[in-house]
Amino acid sequence: MVGFDPDSAVFRVHEGGKLVLRSKLPLVDRESLSLAYTPGVAEVCSAIAEDESLARTYTWRSRLVAVVSDGTAVLGLGNIGPAAALPVMEGKAALFSEFAGLNCVPIVLATTDPDEIVETVVRIAPSFGGINLEDISAPRCFEIEARLRDRLDIPVFHDDQHGTAIVVLAAMRNAAKVTGRELSDLRVVVSGAGAAGVACTKILLAAGIGDIAVADSRGILHAGRGGLTAVKDELARTTNRTGLTGSIHDALDGADVFLGVSAGAIGEVSVARMSPNSIIFALANPTPEVEPEMAHRHASVVATGRSDYPNQINNVLAFPGVFAGAFDAGAHTITENMKLAAATALSDVVADELAPDRIVPTPFDSRVAPAVAAAVAEQARADGVAREPVAR
Fold first, then answer.
1. Residue 119 is part of which domain span?
2. What is this structure's pTM?
3. Residue positions annotated with a catalytic role
4. Contact by Cβ (8 Å): 247, 269
């Protein structure tokens, strides 16, 4: 089996999985057992039966996230199925715990049918305070998230879309500052019209980007291009104000920013056509769309999705704080303004430390999750989607 070495460090770390479940209560005698379980638990059950909102206080639901995947778009591995996706979902749960102190249960589903996924998540939702959708391929991910948001009164968040978008916007704000510009000054070219590309484009538009064009494997999206999906048709109508056509190579001529959220390689000839003082975010993993050393020859600021280069665009900078903030406010949904607030808070963490190789914090910066959580909770209250807070 290619790549399988049970004696290697990476396989040893994963042996037996990465998660455990432990009781918060010491069960050491008859009294403690009677309080944690029968007969004492019956009092709590009866109270919740009369007032379901009490479940937010007297169960772990208010701080519990379900990470749900069907295994169709896992990392750079693609459609590898639910069992193979489970190590990633376990890792996600570990990140929720480590960076935001949230409980998390990984769930992989043996179906790729949107109707079945939606119905399954709706049926298990009473156990959870929030749903983090993960590694579900486009365009199904858009429909699944939208339908779940309509049917559930808890936060539903597709991290491949919105986590990426939040961190990209935060980094873009700071990259613009480092190069002496505002977001409104920038012309951006996005490579990729999948989950991340769509969400990044939408949040950049909402934040006031100067202009933005999106390219897929067939070239630039524009209003006159036929054969577009509904999602791509919407992008074509809301982007590309100058009416660019042709390939991504054509779009990069004079562009200020390249944002890569696909696996399509971009050559040096195309990169060299960009404007002076350009910005390159090549986020494909493990191989960036633009080779970092080449990118540095032409751009003033370079970011990747990799941890072995500066300026890592890592979703862990966003999703733990977003859920923590939503839970702190008792939010029943995550609004667009809450995502924008998260991006602003994240960019502000390093506002006094900005440099070309320091446009976002590292994942281990202890300021990140609290700052994002506070901003998200405040915005939830301002947007009128908050409920009474629950004690941790």
1. 9-154
2. 0.93
3. 37, 92
4. no
